[in-house]
Specification:
Number of domains: 3
Number of helices: 15
CATH architecture of the largest domain: Beta Barrel
Largest sheet: 8 strands, antiparallel, barrel
CATH topology of the largest domain: Porin
Helix content: 25-40%
Distance between the termini: 75 Å
Order of helices and strands: HEHEEEEHEEEEHEHEHEHHHHEHHHHH
Number of strands: 13
Length: about 500
Amino acid sequence: MWYQAYKIIQRVVLLFLVLTISYKATAQSPVAVRNNLIYDLTGTPNLGADFRVSSHWTLGMTAGYRPWPTDDNATRKLRHLLIAPELRYWNDSTFYKSYWGLNPIYSHYNVSHVKFPFGLYKDVRDHRMEGDLFAIGVFYGRTWRLNRFFRLEGELGVALGYAWAKKYDCTHCGTYYGKDNKPFAIPKLTLNLVYQKAAKPVPPVKPPVVEPVVPQLVSHPVEDNTGKAGILQTDNPVLEHISHYRPYDRTRILRKEKGALYVHFPLNQDVLIHDFRNNADVLDRIVSITRQVMADTTSTVSRIQIIGLASIEGPVDRNERLAEGRAEALKRYIQQHVPTPDALYDMAYGGEAWTELRDQINDIVIAGTVSSDTIAALRQALNVIDTENDLNRREQRLRQLAGGRTYAYIQQHLLADQRNSGYLRIYYDYVPDTRAATINRASELMQHERYAEALQLLQGVKDDPRAWNALGVALWHTGSQNAALDLFRRAAEQGNADARENLRQLNK
């Protein structure tokens, strides 16, 4: 039996060596080897090892083997083999303070005439007990470092198990008393001397010096506040700033000037009918735009330009009066719905719309979307318009072309759009935006890194959302980063592209 025990302990030691070598080679983690000094007092050689498996856990094994006395006739015996795997949880990741443990225990023993302290195991004082036991133990341990290589471990715990034993007299082959199988509880008191090479102190690694990234904050000039008129102009190109005003002359081709509105009249009439053609939409827009601009305190209607026109049909004198009457009819309509003085109106009477007609004919000829005969006839009409200066005579000659067919084409396809009041445009002006000038001056100062001066200017317009981004830049560079971030966020929520870019820079 003891030869078999010898082979078992040999295998355990070999397992320790293999685990130690392989663990160091693969995991590069600490391995501790220990000896139980209290166990040594019983004359039992013992050895243990622990292997780190994670940041708080170690796995270990303890083995003890006492083969003597080798003389089987000796009365006093404490011969045994003990194997105890062990799992520990360390309360910190340094593995040098306290821990909790759990271990299963197996032992084969042949014990007699031994007096254990504290009255333990009384049966072996007067009898020989030979058998096996298995137990589960729990314990608490604490360590004390002696130097870089050695430390002490103290453990206190308890094990509960079951023993299968044969009971004899205290001799080699004494009287057999039968089996003595029973559960048991044993205390655990351990003082281990542990060898573990501690890592050399690693000098602190100085972090690389990183130069602070200076955000490239931006603040571009803001546009003037053009008041209600400027806002309306986006969707109503009939509105133009007064700086774009042009007086009328009869060489202007009004039909190609974008944004103008036209109100149409029936043939030979200067009575404005609200529901004629698309007059309703046009008139309502004119009244609405004029009212909104007139009610705004930051913008004003500077001029309403109305250019009266008539078609080429009929005598020139009558068409001149008709163009004038149509322009005056539109003026009266606006004044009836929006009180406006006569001085606000720029009235021009364009008479017969020969310039408009010639441009219409020329576009058809260039496009080539009609038959070749029609194009040839229209070219003749252009020649008449360009060579005949007498307007009454010019109309008569057009009527005679191709036996009247050319004039019939013109009358059917082109003249209907000339029976209108002509061109109408509303010019506006607005109160000079001194706040925009202040914000833009501050932005210029910040381009030269004069942030304190810019901040002083911007404090006077800080309630203007257009100033929030520039004010944030000035605050950031003068040390008020939290206030700057708040302003950047508020400006970004208002749609300020510069503020969004500044937040992106700061997030980097």
